[in-house]
Amino acid sequence: MFRITKNILLTLTIIITGACSSDDDLLVSTDGSIELKFDNIVGLQTSGIIEEPLSQNYPFETAQGQAYNLTLVKYIISEMILEGPNGEYYADSLNVSTDFLSGYYLINESEPTSRNIILENIPAGTYNKVTFTIGVNEEGVSQGTGIFLDGMFWTWNSGYIALKVEGQSPESNGDSFGDTIEESNPFGFGYHIGGWGSINNNQEYRLEFDAVEINQSQYPGVHILMDVGNVFNGQNPVDFSITNSVHSPRTGNLVAKNLNDLFSIDHAHQ
Amino acid sequence: MWSCNDFQEPEKVVIDNGFGFVKPEHFPEPSYTFSNNEVTKEGFNLGKALFFDPIFSRDGTVACSSCHDQTVAFADPQHRLSIGIEDRVGVRNAPQMTNLAFMNNFFWDGGVIHVDFIPLNAIENPLEMDEETSEVVVKLRNTETYPPMFAKAFGTDSVSTPRMLHALSQFMVMLVSADAPYDQYRLNKAELTNLQLQGLDIFEEKCASCHSGQLFTDQSFRNNGLDSEFEDLGRGVITEDENDFGKFRVPSLRNVMLTKPYMHDGRFSSIEEVLAHYNEGVVFSESLDETLKGERLGIALTDDERLKIAAFLETLTDTNFISNPTFFK
């Protein structure tokens, strides 16, 4: 009896949806989920990269040979897209309202749960590419309030700060500032990279990983590495004795050019 | 039996309580995002209460209304430069707050591009309210009056930054000034005097390339020749581009006769001084506006023309707006 009822319902569903939509996927939900884990590292050190403010321990060194530590690593991820080899495509929807936010993620190295982004309702299939942006582009800014205003926003020059990296270096001349750095800190540095307008420091990344299956019963994970050390190396190597305080789109633009290789894939697992 | 059209959503029942944002018929489309923040009576009332409350400032002494007074179209009635907590003197003159729903950028340097973000600038500026936004939210939570007002406006008594800013926006976007004698003339409801009409002609010829349209601003940034060297970089602070040094937002001239003093630093105390500046006071600098360059700098205006322009500008004073009890505390 139960089976008959179920079949009738199923048939009705076919008639209704079949008549109005050509999308057969509506018939049976085969959506799945995936977890993207952001591991913030410095070179070979893959965990515990944050020191207490005022710590005199400098575990890291730039390519220029300057010692430093990190007291804060925070960034915004948005515009996530998943793609697969057979035309699979999923774009995380961006939505900003008074009480609801989707498609924007704040990752804070000091808050472990923030480092995992779970994307849901992804059409079943094979996926091997992820695209995302660090920062918030005009589409998000122009929607007004709703996204991480506390701490990741320039009030005087409306726009979100894409990336905050703060710490200390014995080479720094102090007088910088940030969430964890006071101007009185003689060794502090603060790099707040933002800007979405005429100077746009938001960057898009496209990474490929070993193909995984997403469906109702398989819930894969992709581990993404963010090497904070790259912020100071690359095209415009940072000298802490010259540049230790970056708080505007133009000054951030030089540092932003270092961010091309900020992210890489560690591994993907089924 | 069933067609696809049968599956349409039932029409939403719209309760018309006579309250909400209405675009004046002769105005452009608003730029504000009503799609995620529709104006309701309850949200507006909450925003109004917040507007008048000094709880936003660190020491509880300065409210939004301290520098934005309805009797002068929500400009500052008495100070050349904004006065913040502990009598701290700001760097610019507080602009009027009308027709914000139609604007694309705000403040003299246009650093703020959405109405929702306007309060953040004043709250966190050390020379104004010198408070952290997150701290304001905590203070509001701990009051007896605000959580029930948030409940009425947003369906929950939980105070959050987005809800607070959306309520303030609901108040701000309702500050529409579109009922001055000029508007009544535009809409064929009233006549202007001959003197005013002659002033309008001169205004359109000599002023309206920047102070254009029904908002009386093209919302651009221009250097109008106040200084040859800049103490305040203006738009250049935001773009960090030397081509923008010394440029400021073209202000709306609606209610301009009420909003003295004039210019970003309030250096002129009367319209006569402003018109005299354009006639004979413009000084050269690299970023000086093209419309003010030429054989002689500035805009040639005879005494008679200045008189008539001033007579026309009087027609932009919207007494119905500045006396509208909807906005009273």
Query: Radius of gyration of chain B from the CA trace?
Result: 22 Å
Run of helices and strands of chain B? HHHHHHHHEHEHHH
Q: Architecture of the largest domain in chain B, CATH level 2?
A: Orthogonal Bundle
Largest sheet of chain A: 10 strands, mixed
Main sheet record of chain B? 2 strands, antiparallel
* Biggest interface and residues each: A-B, 26 and 34 residues
Q: Helicity of chain A, in percent?
A: 10-25%
- Give the number of domains of chain B: 2
Can you write the helix and strand succession of chain A as a string?
HEEEEEEEEEHEEEEEEHE
Shape of chain A: globular
What is the CATH H-level superfamily of the largest domain in chain B? Cytochrome c-like domain
For the secondary structure, the number of strands of chain B is 2
What proportion of the residues of chain A form beta strands (DSSP E)? 35-45%
Task: Return the structural class of chain A.
Answer: mainly beta
Helix count, DSSP H or I runs of 4 or more residues of chain B: 12
Write the layout of secondary structure elements.
The complex is a heterodimer of chains A (270) and B (329).
Chain A: H1 2-20, E1 32-41, E2 60-61, E3 67-83, E4 89-91, E5 95-96, E6 101-102, E7 104-108, E8 116-122, E9 125-134, H2 138-141, E10 153-154, E11 159-168, E12 188-194, E13 203-214, E14 221-227, E15 245-246, H3 249-256, E16 263-269
Parallel strand pairs in A: 1-14, 12-15
Antiparallel strand pairs in A: 1-8, 2-3, 3-4, 3-7, 3-9, 3-11, 5-6, 9-13, 10-11, 11-12, 14-16
Chain B: H1 41-51, H2 64-67, H3 118-124, H4 133-141, H5 146-154, H6 161-173, H7 181-186, H8 194-206, E1 221-222, H9 235-239, E2 248-249, H10 271-281, H11 303-314, H12 319-322
Antiparallel strand pairs in B: 1-2
Task: Quickly list its features.
heterodimer; A: 270 residues; 10-stranded mixed sheet; 3 helices; 16 strands; globular; disordered N terminus; B: 329 residues; mainly alpha; Cytochrome Bc1 Complex, Chain D, domain 2; 2 domains; 12 helices
